[in-house]
Amino acid sequence: MSVGKKSNLYANTDRHTRMAEHFLYAGISALLLATPHFYPQAWFLSLFALIPFLWRVVNVRFSESIILGALLAGSYCFVIASPVSWVLSANMVFKLLALSLLFAVYAATVNRIARHIGLNAIFIAVLWLPLEYTLNQIAFVDQILAFPQESSGLIMRVGTMFGMLMVSFVIMLTNLLILILIKEVMDALQSGAELHIERIGRPCSPADTPLSQEARYRFATPRAPPQN
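Above: the chain sequence. Below: its structure as tokens.
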């Protein structure tokens, strides 16, 4: 096998590996998003369901973020819809296309914001609102970020005062704040590990010598008087 063929093989293998990783991150988020729709008591999963997806989106190339959005849409539709609906209803194909397009645009926008502005939680959470509104109006997809609608607690009070989209904003903001916290902790741990490695590899200087060891060489030891 020639060198050119080997490099192409390695490039294809790396591409397939990255695609599998994209599918894993998107699939985990899709499963966490879909579970509360089947088990309403697990609504709290929505508070961190999109963290794997967002983590991947902000750490990949622009073209890969678009693929991630489409993968999340496809995985979500596959989990939330029964196989019979795919066969008997052509409307599901339209929903899948609309969901894929909107999530791809959202993922690409988040990727650009993270690259040029930073991980701005409020800005990215606000961008979620037109996405979910469009899905409700055009694709007729139910609320993606699930929450207990039968509850009379704080969530429903916020929804009653400001609308249900505000509840989605709060849930999305929680996802992003948790993501930022995880990123800060990992950056701190990584910087601490690099500092530790740098200190180990650095040659010992006089300033690093303990005072107890320096003292033995800074003071003259007693000697016997000279002999004639």
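The mean pLDDT is 76.
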